[in-house]
Structures are given as C-alpha cells and as structure tokens.
Design a protein that fits this description.
400 residues; alpha/beta; Rossmann fold; 2 domains; 16 helices
Length: 400
C-alpha cells in the first residue's frame, strides 16, 4: 500500500473525504489537538517505534500466523485462509492499538486510561495495557454485554481495572461509549480516552488504523510467501471496523484483491434487530464524527442489535464510509444464525473456536468459497470465542 494514501487520508482536519472530523465541545478541541500533535511527534520517533516493536514481539506474540483451513477448503471449495489474530495475547486484535495508545499515554504523562467496551475484548486489552504500564484504568460496559460477556468482565477486574456498568438506554455498546465519553470530559488533562475502534473524533480513527496496520502488513507478506501471489478475496467483520481497516490497509491498491466488510444482519432488517450500518444507514454525526449511521425518524442513532456484542454499534469508522463511496470495499451482511452456524463449523472442522464477531466473516467466507471454488479467501479471524461460550451454549445449545 502506497504511503501516499496514508498521508492523504485523513486530511489535516481529520476528514476522509466528507467523513470523520471532530464535532466536539470547544473545551475539548485543545485536548484533541494535544493528542494529535503528540501522536505525530512521538510516533515518528525511533524510541517510540522501537519500544512498540519490542512489545509486539516479546509481549503480544507477534507476528500472528496465517493458517490454511484444509478441511473447510475441501468441503466448501475455494482455498480458505485465516489471519490468526485470535492467537494475539488477550485473544483478539484489540491489543494492537491498546498497547500503542497506552504507550502514547505514557509518553504524554497521562495517569489514567478510560474506554468503552462491547464484547469486552477492547476492555481486556486496555486493562492489560494499563497493567503493563502501571496506569489506572476504567472501562464502561453496558449491563446487557456484562451479562453476555462475563468472562471478560472477570478478566478486566483481575487485571485491576474498574468496570462501570451502564444502565441507561439499550445498555449496550452505544450507551457505553456515551458513558465513557462523559467520564472523560470530567478530567481530560490527566486521562486518555482510548477509543476501541476506528471511530470517534479525529485523531482516533487515524491512530487506531495506524496501530492496526501491522495485521495487514504481516498478512500480505505471509500469504505471498505461502502462495507466491496475493489472495483473491480478503474478508473481515465490521462493527466500528478496526480489525477490517487493519487488514484492508495492506490491499487497498491491489486490483486483483476483492475486499469484503461484513456487518451483522442480526435477526432481520427491522429497526432494532440488526446493526448493518453500511447496508441500511446514511451519513450522519455520532460521537463526535461523521460516518454512515443507522438513524431513527428524528435523525438520532437508532436502536441496534447483534448476537455479537462487538458489532452492535449504530455507526462505523469514517474511513470505511469513504471506502464504501469509493467502491474500494464491498460491504455485506450475515445473519445471527449464519454466524452461529459458522461458529460451530470452524470449531469442528478446524479446531478453532472463533469470536462471534469473527464468525460473521467466516460465514461470509464460506459463501464466497462456494461461489468462487477456484479462488483464495483470506479471513481476518479477529478474536477467539472463549468469551462467547456460555452465551452460545445457553442461547443456542450445542448441535449434535
């Protein structure tokens, strides 16, 4: 991927064409500018880059491998590969940007990290980063997600993080973002709000994307080394879109690679029963930035739902919104049932239990394999499914 792309997007004001920006209270503008200036200064320094690379290699366990799914490929056609972000320390891609954000906080002299979480993977990753650097940490999480993802709640608490239950609205990810942002407003000077995806006001969509680029850089080199060519298709699930931007970033200029961002179709396309923002949304402003959003009749963020707690967000990353308009990425959706079927299929065919978020991408890959039996498909397996086991078994049972 040409460096010119990353210099061009976003622009100096944080826009990816018409999307992004920073629609925030005036008193926060100075703090965001400090974060932006610090990121551009610190992230270009040899000391910062060397420390981050050392963390990735010796603490996170990078590079994560690319794995060829022999049995799935034989059954469905095509050649299916997984970028194994589930093997990253803490079990998901989230640690890639959390360690970067926490390292930035350390260099800026911040004392506390604060964030939201849906599935709990971002919360666990940030709690881990806070423990590593000796920082305070506070995670806001909807009560619905606390119940669904309780193993991750325990992990956060064991790591020394304060978990704040969010009890208003639908009690899921959108409300957790609201709550965390309100808490951040109380003390932006000594606290860094570590957004969990490529969303939020500038510079966060850019920062999280840049920290996640390691996924795409590794995957591109690994796949080419294995096969002598690039994948025909690259597939990733999209909620806010951090894992997808991480892997897509390495293939955006490769015309031979088709990129697919997969959203949750949920139970149906009725309002409140899905979170397919790209499929059913339109441009709007949410949480301080402009992107495609799911809106109610008043133009406010609409209720959303997904079986995967990390995907039930009524907005999406501004860069994804731009890529949709540019026709660089194909955005499609997978239903709850298709994701659950893929969850069990990957588990039983390859011995890999995926996160429910990642199962959406796996389900779509199986469809592509049937449709294009002579093509290769690289899936970003963004997380492992330990956190989902109790919920899946209690809700759907275990098939015979």
């Amino acid at each position: 991927m040409s460096e010119n792309y990353f210099k061009k997007y976003p622009n100096e004001k944080g826009f990816f064409n018409e999307y992004g920006g920073a629609f925030i209270p005036p008193h926060l503008e100075a703090e965001m500018k400090k974060i932006n200036d610090a990121y551009f200064s610190i992230s270009k320094s040899h000391r910062f880059i060397s420390e981050l690379r050392d963390i990735r290699k010796h603490y996170q366990g990078r590079p994560t491998p690319v794995f060829h799914c022999n049995r799935l490929s034989e059954k469905y056609g095509g050649q299916i590969y997984l970028k194994r972000e589930d093997l990253n320390h803490t079990g998901a891609h989230k640690l890639n940007h959390c360690m970067g954000e926490a390292l930035l906080a350390k260099y800026m002299g911040k004392k506390k990290l604060i964030a939201e979480t849906g599935a709990g993977q971002h919360g666990v990753a940030l709690a881990t980063a806070a423990a590593y650097f000796g920082l305070e940490c506070e995670i806001h999480m909807g009560e619905v997600d606390i119940e669904k993802e309780y193993p991750n709640v325990l992990r956060m608490k064991i790591l020394g993080t304060k978990v704040i239950p969010v009890t208003h609205g639908l009690k899921t990810l959108k409300e957790a973002v609201d709550s965390a942002f309100d808490a951040y407003l109380e003390d932006p000077v000594s606290t860094l709000y570590c957004i969990g995806s490529v969303v939020g006001p500038h510079p966060f969509p850019m920062m999280v994307r840049d920290f996640q680029r390691v996924v795409g850089i590794e995957a591109r080199d690994q796949f080419f080394e294995m096969n002598g060519e690039l994948p025909d298709n690259v597939v990733a699930c999209v909620g806010g879109g951090s894992n997808a931007m991480g892997i897509f970033s390495a293939f955006l200029e490769d015309e031979e690679c088709s990129l697919y961002g997969i959203e949750p179709a949920g139970k149906s396309f009725k309002t409140g029963e899905h979170a397919a923002t790209m499929t059913k949304g339109k441009p709007g402003i949410i949480h301080g930035f402009k992107c495609y959003t799911l809106q109610d009749e008043n133009g406010d963020p609409a209720p959303v739902y997904s079986v995967a707690s990390g995907l039930d967000y009524p907005g999406v990353g501004p860069e994804h919104s731009m890529l949709k308009d540019m026709n660089k990425v194909i955005y499609d959706s997978i239903s709850d049932q298709e994701a659950i079927d893929a969850f069990f299929e990957l588990s039983r065919m390859e011995g890999i239990i995926p996160a429910l978020e990642s199962a959406h991408a796996v389900a779509y890959a199986l469809k592509l394999a049937k449709k294009y039996p002579r093509q290769s498909i690289l899936v970003n397996l963004s997380g492992r499914g330990d956190k989902d086991l109790d919920f899946v078994v209690d809700t759907f049972g275990i098939p015979e």
